[in-house]
Amino acid sequence: MTAFAQFLGEKAERYIELRHSLGYAFSKQAGTLRAFVRYVGRAQLDAPATRTMALDFVPSFSGAVNSRAIRHGVLRRFYEYLAVYDAGPRAWSAELSPDPERFRLRVFSTRLS
Questions:
Q1: What is the mean pLDDT of residues 1-16?
Q2: Angle at which helices 3-21 and 65-82 pack, to 10 degrees?
Q3: Phi-psi region for residue 63, left (φ > 0), alpha (ψ -120 to 50) or beta?
Q4: pLDDT at position 107, please?
Q5: Which of 87, 86, 75, 88 is nearest to 12 (CA)?
Q6: Is this prediction's pTM over 0.90?
Q7: CB of 1 within 8 A of CB of 41?
Q8: Longest Cα pair distance anywhere in the chain, in angstroms?
Q9: Angle at Cα 54 formed by Cα 8 and Cα 67, nearest 5°?
Q10: Could you give the dihedral angle defined by the CA atoms of residues 99, 104, 105 and 111, in that order, rounded to the nearest 10 degrees?
Q11: Residue 10, H or E segment
Q12: What does the alpha-carbon distance between residue 88 and residue 74 come to, in Å, rounded to a whole number?
């Protein structure tokens, strides 16, 4: 198992623990994450976790189209969780930072009407 697969496995187990602690059963989703970690290990893939890795994994075993969509959703949410561990700097985006004046007008304009 590569160092990246080991790292991914540890993070997947932490994510599973988190979901359980929040009250989710998360058993099928946990199986999907563990299968993804095995896939990464067998394929000898290296960091970072990419969109291509996830998209190659999703159809890697048979199942209905709906089950592939569910697998994709599980991985997408896991990738969002992994983003916390990304040490790289984030590019600033004006779209993500609200304009305070527009925000104020939007919040208070509904009260004035």
A1: 89
A2: 100
A3: left
A4: 42
A5: 75
A6: no
A7: yes
A8: 62
A9: 110
A10: 160
A11: helix 3-21
A12: 24
